[in-house]
Amino acid sequence: MLDTALSIALALITLAWVLNLYRLIIGPSLPDRVLALDTMYINSIALIVVYGIQVDSKLYFEAAMLIALIGFVSTVAVAKYVTRGDIIE
Q: Phi/psi zone of residue 27: left (φ > 0), alpha (ψ -120 to 50 degrees), beta?
């Protein structure tokens, strides 16, 4: 039962990732693309965590934490660049 739920979760998260990729490419404005990129890394974290549960390995959770830290910092940097024009004042 758990294997079926994990497979369905992987499929739905992958679908969400593909839809975010579409918004990243087609997005009408720059803020839409930034939000799509932010959501894509969150979906990537979810994929890694669900896969880690499926294969029963703790290594994937550490990788997901590292991606979360890098994604947060990059989102802040891109948002600052979009609003002010430079990252470091």
A: beta
pTM of the model: 0.83
Count of positions (residues) in the chain: 89
SS3 of 58, please?
coil
For 8, counting Cβ atoms within 10 Å of its Cβ (0-12 exposed, 13-18 middle, 19+ buried), the class is exposed
Range list of H helices, 1-89: 2-26, 30-55, 59-84
Structural domains in the chain, CATH included, are: 2-84 (1.10.287)
Among the listed ranges 5-14, 41-50, 70-79, which one has the minimum average pLDDT value? 70-79
Q: Do 71 and 42 form a contact (C-beta atoms < 8 A)?
A: yes
Q: How many angstroms separate the Cα of 60 from the Cα of each of 40, 45, 54, 72?
A: 17, 9, 10, 18
